[in-house]
Amino acid sequence: MTVDELAVRLEDLRLRHVPDRRVGVWDVSLEEEGDAPGITGAVTEPAALEDLSTLAGEAGIRVAVELLPVPGAQLQAIAHRSLAHLRAEPRHSAELVSQMVLGEEALVLRARGDWLQVQTGDRYVAWVHHSSIVRRDAGELESYRSDLYERRPPAGRFVVTSRCARAIAEPAPYAAPVADLVQGAIVEVGETRGRFLQIVLPDGASGWVARSDAVPAERLAQRFTPSGRAIVEHAAQFLGLPYLWGGTSEKGFDCSGFVQRLFGLHGYWLPRDSDQQAARGEPVDPGSDWSGIADGDLAFFAEPGAGRATHVGILAQGRRLLHASTGRNGVAWDALDRAAAGHDEYAAGLAGMLTGVRRVALPVVADLR
């Protein structure tokens, strides 16, 4: 088997096992050692490792491919301050691809210097600096991975529901700040004093927040109703917030991070990127007059030649779109229908890139009292 034939076979295996590199690792290459080529690298799929070993046997070459995560303790990574930045490569100058908010968890796949490659609850694979997280023993791997993918906070945790909250050193007005908090942060709680609630951060630091700033995770639907109308009203609170590529919080959103965070708080976790989100839910025909739209429907757009969705926004009745947009430099309304108030040249161009509308089924909560 020639080197070229091996390269073709390796690409076939990649497409079979890790067609989307955002949600799995395929770090595999052919390397020469003297006159003997070998297959080296790392993968996250056990079946991929088996197929690579079979291929190496057929070709009569060595194989040295590692299965991730690397075995060992402390495979649980937890963001311990308001945001942990996730990068495309293990360096600070690399592209920001996503973020973990305080208390969100990830599976540690491997280390490279001061950086850790992790897989988050939405299955996204990226690199985080070790100082941005705390590490703990994850316990039984498959059980932890299953819990991680469910995106449910551990029992007894509280979720921060206020925007731009902060933990302070004492349960008193004007106390010194201890930590910045963002909406969706997950914290442990201690005692209650008057209108203040003690919280404990993942690294052991503690502080106090107003009792109105956080709710038990199991009662999150009482604060953020699982309905399209509630999502639209919540999303509108971020109007004017600047756009941030890779952003997933009120410090700055990109388009899909905005949608993912809002829907997650209201009970439905979507994948990270717009093309991944476009595979969820059911298609909706908006109709020529957009009368088929319901609050909370998702509109997807594709740049010319992209071949997949590259932008997403939240639709509302009245033929309007609420989205985090580079063209609007942040969260803004746009009127897609030429007959709607506020329709302009930018909105017309956006409407021309519309590829579809989808509706996701939010969870049914029997009792919101």
Question: Helices and strands in order, then pairings?
Answer:
Blueprint: H1 3-17, E1 26-33, E2 36-43, H2 46-59, E3 62-67, E4 76-79, E5 83-87, E6 96-101, E7 105-112, E8 115-120, E9 125-129, E10 133-136, H3 141-150, E11 158-160, E12 166-168, E13 177-180, E14 186-193, E15 196-200, E16 206-210, E17 214-216, H4 220-223, H5 228-235, E18 248-249, E19 252-253, H6 255-265, H7 274-277, E20 282-283, E21 298-301, E22 311-316, E23 320-325, E24 330-335, H8 345-351, E25 354-359
Helix pairs in contact: 1-2
In short:
The protein is of the alpha+beta class.
Structural summary, described in words:
- The chain has 369 residues and is α+β, with helices and mostly antiparallel strands.
- The protein folds into 4 domains: 3-67, 2-Layer Sandwich (Histidine-containing Protein, Chain: A), CATH 3.30.1340; 76-150, SH3 type barrels (Roll); 158-221, SH3 Domains (SH3 type barrels, Roll); 228-359, Alpha-Beta Complex (endopeptidase fold (from Nostoc punctiforme)).
- Helices cover 20% and strands 34% of the residues.
- The protein has helices spanning 3-17, 46-59, 141-150, 220-223, 228-235, 255-265, 274-277, 345-351, and strands at residues 26-33, 36-43, 62-67, 76-79, 83-87, 96-101, 105-112, 115-120, 125-129, 133-136, 158-160, 166-168, 177-180, 186-193, 196-200, 206-210, 214-216, 248-249, 252-253, 282-283, 298-301, 311-316, 320-325, 330-335, 354-359.
- Strands 20-25-21-22-23-24 form a 6-stranded antiparallel beta sheet, with helices on both faces. Strands 9-8-7-4-10 form a 5-stranded antiparallel beta sheet. A 5-stranded antiparallel beta sheet has the order 16-15-14-11-17, with no helix packed on it.
- Helix 1 (3-17) runs antiparallel to helix 2.
- The mean pLDDT is 93.
